[in-house]
């Protein structure tokens, strides 16, 4: 094992931006229309966009109404869903969003809010011809209180740009994910995105201090508080966190931003069994305590994918399982001491046989890219059946094994990786192209398996279009009835992101 050395905090932003963009532009094949692949979904009784509507939009947003080359807005990142929207609107302000929604609500024109379009459940693209409302141009920082670490910004700010901005003030953002070069903070809030820092900073339900959203009728709901404590009435902002564009369009958010860590170290370790991964996790919580900032795992099939599809070399020899541990803090020698103590223990006790610790930025970058580029690497196989579930740690890897046994040679590979620290497994199956036979073998078996073990069928990606019918696997009938009532209260004409999150009414 390399000796543990401190290294400066690394900025992975540039790399990730390049990777996500490179991937988006390198795969231009046309995907089957969602309405064809899912013929059971019927278009709602919505208006059809007319030339007069386009003219009105042009008056509301001069020069920011797109009607040509909309393929990128109609197709999701995974290339699994494709709508047929004829128009994309690009507002710059809350007032403009309000004007658009007021008009669409009166005309009963359905809309789909879109941020960075990195969502993985088909929620950010139209199913039929819904109008896309993109937050791309709503990318202004509104204010920063350096003392409290409170940032207020528009919903279209790209996550990585916010992180760059905050680093000038020795602050950071409490959320980090592989798509940060493209995803928007509004999209993150709308999906209640998790990511690799959730272990350290908790979920967006705790870190979003306030938000502003435009409701279906154009009314602006101003809950853009910057207070850490505010117990006056129902906490309405929470309803929007994870609502996936079905209750309103988030136009601005207020975030609690922690101090930027001064030092970061990354260890990449090999384990012989999944039980050992759990034992190492337990030890890391015990011995690293407050400096532990990420605990990720990937299996040997993930590593094979990394080597074959991404042409990245493993820094250590082959193992059945790997863990990536990140520590970050404000005192290098203190953090180093803790990491050394932890590593000595896991190596000395035989839990870990081989590993490496990053001592330079390029190596840290390399280790993180093996984990963060997995989503991209999977798509090189053709089609990816993507699942992100929460499971008790005792059943965590059992699902990967059950799917491998069930699917056998029907799929190219079954890959398991994820945020062990949050009980969040990313399970991915690939095949050269979409196959209903494979799909029928996976669903609903996989969801039944998760429900039987009291897990959740979506840990962080949400339900979107693809998973809405399976909501009952994770929520009771009475809870879904209440959700439908809430939806009707906020959006009586059901114009906001139809066919998403909830089963048909
Ligand atoms: C490589 C890669 C890695 C990823 N890693 C993670 C991860 O670790 N953790 C995780 O949770 N997710 C992850 N994701 C999924 C995705 O990045 C997140 O769901 C992200 O939060 C989506 O943000 P976005 O701006 O791209 O939203 P979009 O994809 O544009 O939209 C997602 C949903 O939010 C709605 N929406 C978007 N903006 C708004 C708004 N302003 N108001 C209301 N509704 C809105 C859309 O209608 C849609 O339903 C990853 C994706 C990729 C491609």
Can you describe what's shown?
With 505 residues, this protein is α+β, with helices and mostly antiparallel strands. Among the domains are: 7-22 and 261-375, Alpha-Beta Plaits (2-Layer Sandwich); 141-256, Uridine Diphospho-n-acetylenolpyruvylglucosamine Reductase, domain 3, CATH 3.30.465; 381-474, 2-Layer Sandwich (Alpha-Beta Plaits). It contains 19 helices and 17 strands. The chain has helices spanning 13-26, 34-37, 51-60, 71-74, 94-107, 159-167, 185-191, 198-201, 204-207, 237-240, 274-288, 300-310, 332-348, 361-372, 374-379, 398-407, 436-442, 445-452, 477-490; strands at 7-8, 65-66, 88-89, 111-114, 131-134, 141-145, 150-154, 208-214, 220-223, 249-256, 263-271, 292-299, 321-329, 354-357, 383-390, 413-419, 424-431. Helix 11 (274-288) packs antiparallel against helix 13. It binds flavin-adenine dinucleotide (FAD). The site of flavin-adenine dinucleotide (FAD) has 37 residues, from strand 4, helix 7 and strand 10.
Descriptors:
8-stranded antiparallel β-sheet, alpha+beta, Alpha-Beta Plaits, binds flavin-adenine dinucleotide, Uridine Diphospho-n-acetylenolpyruvylglucosamine Reductase, domain 3, disordered N terminus, 505 residues, 5-stranded antiparallel β-sheet
């Amino acid at each position: 094992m390399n000796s543990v050395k401190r290294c400066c905090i690394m900025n992975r932003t540039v790399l990730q931006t390049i990777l996500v963009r490179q991937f988006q532009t390198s795969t231009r094949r046309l995907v089957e229309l969602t309405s064809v692949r899912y013929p059971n979904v019927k278009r709602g009784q919505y208006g059809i966009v007319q030339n007069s509507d386009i003219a009105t939009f042009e008056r509301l947003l001069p020069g920011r109404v797109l009607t040509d080359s909309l393929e990128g807005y109609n197709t999701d990142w995974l290339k699994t869903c494709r709508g047929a929207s004829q128009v994309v609107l690009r507002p710059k302000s809350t007032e403009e969003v309000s004007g658009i929604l007021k008009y669409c609500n009166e005309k009963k024109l359905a809309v789909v809010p879109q941020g960075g379009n990195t969502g993985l459940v088909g929620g950010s693209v139209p199913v039929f011809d819904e109008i896309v409302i993109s937050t791309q141009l709503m990318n202004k920082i509104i204010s920063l209180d350096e003392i409290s670490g409170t940032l207020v910004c528009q919903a279209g700010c790209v996550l990585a740009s916010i992180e760059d901005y905050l680093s000038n003030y020795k602050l950071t953002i409490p959320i980090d994910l592989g798509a940060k070069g493209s995803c928007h903070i509004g999209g993150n809030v709308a999906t209640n995105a998790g990511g690799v820092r959730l272990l350290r900073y908790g979920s967006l339900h705790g870190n979003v201090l306030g938000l502003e959203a435009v409701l279906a009728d154009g009314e602006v709901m101003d809950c853009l508080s910057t207070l850490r404590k505010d117990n006056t009435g129902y906490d309405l902002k929470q309803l929007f966190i994870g609502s996936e564009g079905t209750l309103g369009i988030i136009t601005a958010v207020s975030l609690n931003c922690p101090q930027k860590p001064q030092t970061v170290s990354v260890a990449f370790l090999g384990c012989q069994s999944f039980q050992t991964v759990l034992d190492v996790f337990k030890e890391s919580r015990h011995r690293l305590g407050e400096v532990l900032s990420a605990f990720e795992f990937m299996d040997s099939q993930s590593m094979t994918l990394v080597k074959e599809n991404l042409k990245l070399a493993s820094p250590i020899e082959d193992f059945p399982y790997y863990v990536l541990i990140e520590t970050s803090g404000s005192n290098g020698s203190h953090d180093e001491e803790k990491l050394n103590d932890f590593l000595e223990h896991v190596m000395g006790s035989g839990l870990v046989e081989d590993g490496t610790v990053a001592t330079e930025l390029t190596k840290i970058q390399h280790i993180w890219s093996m984990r963060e580029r997995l989503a991209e690497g999977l798509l090189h196989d053709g089609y990816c059946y993507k699942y992100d579930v929460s499971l008790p740690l005792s059943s965590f890897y059992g699902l990967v094994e059950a799917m491998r046994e069930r699917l056998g040679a029907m799929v190219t590979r079954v890959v398991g990786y994820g945020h062990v620290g949050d009980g969040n497994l990313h399970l991915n199956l690939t095949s050269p192209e979409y196959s209903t036979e494979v799909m029928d073998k996976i669903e609903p078996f996989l969801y039944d398996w998760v429900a039987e073990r009291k897990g959740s069928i979506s840990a962080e990606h949400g339900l979107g279009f693809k998973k809405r019918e399976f909501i009952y696997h994770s929520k009771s009938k009475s809870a879904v009835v209440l959700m439908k009532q809430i939806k009707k209260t906020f959006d009586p004409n059901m114009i906001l992101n139809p066919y998403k999150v909830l089963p048909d009414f």
